[in-house]
Automatic annotation (TrEMBL):
Keyword match Phosphoprotein: no
The keyword Ribonucleoprotein is assigned to this record: no
The organism of origin for this protein: Natronococcus amylolyticus DSM 10524
Limits of the Calcineurin-like phosphoesterase domain: 28-234
The entry's keywords: Hydrolase, Iron, Metal-binding
SUPFAM superfamilies to which the protein is assigned, alphabetical: Metallo-dependent phosphatases
Protein name: Metallophosphoesterase
PANTHER family in UniProt: CYCLIC NUCLEOTIDE PHOSPHODIESTERASE CBUA0032-RELATED, PHOSPHOHYDROLASE
Coiled-coil portions: none
Molecular function as annotated in GO: hydrolase activity; metal ion binding
Similarity section: Belongs to the cyclic nucleotide phosphodiesterase class-III family.
Lineage: Archaea, Methanobacteriati, Methanobacteriota, Stenosarchaea group, Halobacteria
């Protein structure tokens, strides 16, 4: 058993070492998953009553780490409530580095909501630089940001399961043709954590992107080495068919951590960074144990992941080697 731990704010555990992506100039990208900011809720495994405090702690930590960009892969809010978005905006005012976000299944309108959520257009204007999908260049590192919570006709109101719409897939396929070092960002996970047919059972399928075969085919055909996502509320780093998938844990729940990518010419280190002290982490753990049985399963997976980290280790590139193969 490893002695990996995340006891204090700022503690870190190496989740993985990747051969890809690589950049001539060292870069740092923070990946902050599922904050679920909730100003009028408490309890549950998401630790709603701590969400503002935890996101503020992440922002403070990121501001001290010379980070180049912060990526939020969805679920900024509890359920898309306007007052929770207002609080997110207030918290983000203290972030001193650029950020971008894509909506999660809890950020956009759902059937049965008794409030009006922002439209996909409004979300993109506030958090994604104006439009989604979007492409961002970070000194040769191309980030392709997709919206897996909505398509051409608006949010997927009847399900929390996501997909990448056909128009976005066409846009991605075209854009990847001239991208030398692409990274794709979306909320839902294209690579299931469990195999067929288990991933299509009622318990698991909400955490896996539907109609994902074409998406995976495009990623593989263009040599996309990394997909960054959230949604699953646990840390994960796997490689399937040449594609690496990083799932950032939820800021709102155990293990109370976010991800930091340290990228240079030798590859990428993926770190889990704690944003809570031992007391806060123990509280989140206890709330998870009191939750539904499936959540306790995810808790066990999370504990094993941290204890056995790194999940994926690819040797560093030799200094001076070409960035692309």
């Amino acid at each position: 058993m490893s002695d990996n731990c995340l006891s204090a704010v700022g503690d870190r555990v190496l989740l993985g070492r990747l051969d890809y992506p690589r950049t001539h100039r060292a870069r740092r990208i923070a990946v902050v998953g599922d904050p679920h900011v909730a100003t009028r809720a408490s309890g549950t495994y998401r630790v709603f009553h701590r969400t503002e405090q935890r996101l503020r702690a992440v922002i403070d930590d990121v501001n001290d780490r010379d980070v180049d960009l912060v990526v939020f892969p969805g679920d900024l809010t509890k359920d898309g409530e306007p007052w929770n978005y207002d609080r997110v905006d207030l918290l983000l005012e203290d972030l001193t580095v650029p950020f971008l976000a894509t909506p999660g299944n809890h950020d956009l309108q759902k059937q049965g909501d008794d409030h009006r959520c922002p439209s996909t257009t409004t979300f993109a204007e506030r958090y994604a630089g104006g439009s989604l999908p979007a492409r961002y260049d970070l000194d040769g590192l191309d980030l392709f940001v997709l919206n897996s919570a909505a398509g051409r006709n608006g949010p997927y109101t009847g399900t929390h399961r996501g997909r990448i719409s056909d128009d976005q897939l066409e846009w991605l396929d075209e854009g990847l043709r001239d991208a030398s070092m692409p990274v794709v960002v979306c909320h839902h996970n294209p690579i299931p954590l469990v195999s067929e047919p288990l991933c299509e059972t009622d318990t698991w399928k909400w955490f896996t992107m539907s109609e994902r075969d074409r998406f995976q085919s495009i990623l593989e055909s263009h040599g996309v080495g990394l997909v960054v996502s959230g949604h699953h509320h646990l840390p994960s780093l796997v490689k399937r068919g040449g594609v690496r998938q990083l799932i950032a844990p939820a800021v709102a729940s155990y293990p109370q951590a976010y991800c930091l990518l340290e990228i240079d010419a030798t590859g990428t280190n993926v770190w889990l960074i704690s944003h809570a002290d031992e007391t806060g982490r123990d509280e989140a753990y206890q709330l998870m144990t009191e939750g539904p049985a499936f959540r306790r399963t995810l808790l066990g997976i999370t504990e094993t992941t941290i204890q056995d980290a790194p999940m994926l280790y690819e040797p560093p590139r030799i200094a001076g080697a070409p960035l692309t193969d």
